[in-house]
Here is the input.
Amino acid sequence: MSKNVIKKPIKEKNKPKKKFKLNLRLPKPKNTTIGNALNEVLEGTFLTRKGVIKLIPLGLFITLLTVAYIANNYWSIKSFREMYKLKKELKELRFEHITTKSDFMYSSKQSEVARKLDSLGVKESTVPPQKFFYKSN
Here is the structure.
C-alpha cells in the first residue's frame, strides 16, 4: 500500500483583511416622557402607527376568542343547573311512582277489594265456580 499523498498543493490566497468597525453607540432615545405617552393614548394617535395597525386583526381575533370563552362558560353553567334541576325532578317522580305503586298494590289485595265491595252491597262468593259443558252432536 502506498501512503496518502496530496495530488495538488492548496495555494493560499492572501486576501487583505477588512477591518470591521463596531458601532457601540446606542441610538438616542426619543423624547418620550410619561406625559407624551399619556397624551398619545388620550388623543388616540398611537393607534395610527404602522405596528399597531398590523396588530388589529390579532386583537379582534383574541377578542372573539374571549367572547366565545365567556359564552361557553355561561352555557355550561346553565346546562349544569338545568341538569341538576332535572335530576331533582326525576328523584321526586321516582318517589311518587313508588308511593303510587305501593298504594295500588295495597288497594288491589283481595281483602281490600272485598271490604270496598261490601260497602256497595256486593258479597264475596263462597261457592267455587262451576264448569258448564256443551255436548255437540
